[in-house]
Specification:
By secondary structure, this protein is of the alpha+beta class. It contains eleven helices and 19 strands. The two termini are 26 Å apart. The structure holds FE2/S2 (inorganic) cluster (FES) and fe (ii) ion.
């Protein structure tokens, strides 16, 4: 349970708030690179940390992220004309370059120098993998570029999609670190029904033990599921400040070797976030297009499951197309698609859940530690101390699942695979 002021602190990210300042210390995904596929293509609206921005690509291929609105009288530059080396507002013709500098005001004499005095707010926009990343903080404090392993492996080894989640970013993220929910939310009512299939493991494993180890980027979480007297199945996940998760990959109940999946829950405003869903194969692990498509489909993220603006077809306006007959006899939700179930649950709460009213149990340990780290980071920022997750120690971390002997600790057995370059600092 939190106090109201703690809940406000954690959930509000606009520019005047402490958490907003914290988020502006890190690189953030602004959009997918595939949304700006070529020079002079149409611009894309981007809402990030309650700021309304516009992403576009000029004639020379330079990526730009600027204030959405024209400095003259506020026209959305989304209706602007992307022409030679600039974006022209169609209302009175003011033109801006990729840095947001106004370079033409046709109604004023060029020698007046009027347009030189006009510059829109702008942020860097950098491509890494299929993501365009931005940094919205003070330029002199810009951290190293986001060289995540999923961004730098060859394209045939990696895949990313995104989807709108219509609730505050923190309850969306907390759903991702709550290992215990899979046994209900994504499971079936009767293990004997055909639908149970590969979900039997989760049905029979409702008492996992969750441990979280603090690190220099956030924490490493390990959930131990008892298989039998001799073996445990371990599921691991990393929390990397301020909103990243890397998770062991399970497909149809099977551990996927040499593969890690992840999410980034990026606040658009306080009541909506954009979730980026990625997966990649490491150690030369190519993931075939068919396999990626099958995984996306199983997660409820198939192409036919969303609109062109990344909203779910099954959304809160149509009650996620819940089927009460299926819920009665087959699954706990009656909602199709694993990630659609995750979204439905968090969107069914208030847009910003009231954490003064909750009752937490032992399986909520990772959730509690995550909140603690975020609040602690806000204090560190106020005191001018170094923030965790800014140094590149997490670029090569991986999350894996493994069946191990029951008499050993998972960190001892799995550390080298979780940290192949050994850079991160993990405190037991
Ligand atoms: S509002 Fe854009 S040029 Fe006038
Ligand atoms: Fe889930």
């Amino acid at each position: 349970m939190l106090r109201q002021e703690q809940n406000d602190l954690l959930t509000q990210t606009d520019s005047g708030t402490p958490m907003g300042r914290l988020f502006r210390s890190y690189w953030l995904p602004a959009l997918l690179a595939s949304e700006l596929p070529e020079n002079e293509c149409p611009p894309v609206r981007v809402k990030l940390l309650s700021e309304r921005l516009l992403a576009w690509r000029d004639s020379q291929g330079r990526y730009s992220l600027i204030d959405e609105f024209c400095a003259h009288r506020g026209t959305s530059l989304w209706v602007g004309r992307n022409e030679e080396d600039g974006l022209r507002c169609p209302y009175h013709g003011w033109k801006y370059d990729w840095t947001g500098q106004c370079i033409d005001v046709p109604s004023e004499p060029a020698e007046s120098g009027f347009c030189q005095k006009i510059k829109l707010k702008s942020y860097p926009l950098v491509k890494r993998g299929d993501v365009l990343w931005t940094y919205m903080g003070p330029p002199e404090q810009q951290p190293p570029l986001p060289e995540w392993e999923f961004c730098i492996v060859p394209p045939e080894q990696t895949y990313i999609s995104k989807r709108l989640q219509e609730c505050n970013w923190l309850q969306a993220l907390e759903g991702g670190f709550d290992d215990a929910h899979a046994s209900f939310l994504h499971s079936v009512v009767d293990p004997k029904t055909p639908r149970a299939g590969t979900r039997r493991f989760w049905i029979e494993s409702r008492n996992s033990e969750v441990e979280a180890k603090l690190t220099d980027y956030g924490y490493l979480c390990g959930a131990t599921h008892r298989l039998n007297d001799k073996e445990n199945m371990i599921w691991t996940a990393h929390f990397v400040m301020p909103f990243h998760q890397l998770r062991a990959s399970f497909v149809a109940g099977q551990i996927q070797d040499a593969m890690t999946e992840g999410h980034m829950w990026v606040p658009m405003d306080d009541e909506n976030c954009m979730v980026y869903n990625w997966m990649y194969g490491f150690a030369d692990g190519v993931i075939s297009a068919d396999k990626m498509a099958a995984i996306e489909q199983a997660r409820g993220r198939g192409e036919q499951e969303q609109t062109a603006d990344f909203r779910k077809i099954r959304n809160k306006d149509n009650d996620w197309l819940i089927d009460r007959r299926v819920q009665k006899h087959e699954t706990y939700t009656g909602i199709e698609g694993i990630n659609t179930q995750d979204h439905a649950i968090t969107e069914s709460m208030e847009p910003i859940v009231d954490r003064t009213q909750e009752h937490l149990g032992t399986t909520d340990r990772a959730v509690v530690i995550g909140r603690h780290l975020l609040i602690q980071a806000v204090h560190s920022l106020r005191q001018g101390k170094e923030l965790i997750g800014l140094r590149p120690s997490f670029y090569k971390i991986r999350a894996i699942g493994k069946v191990i002997p029951a008499d050993v600790h998972w960190l001892d057995v799995m550390k080298n695979e979780l940290y192949p370059d050994g850079n991160a600092d993990v405190r037991s």
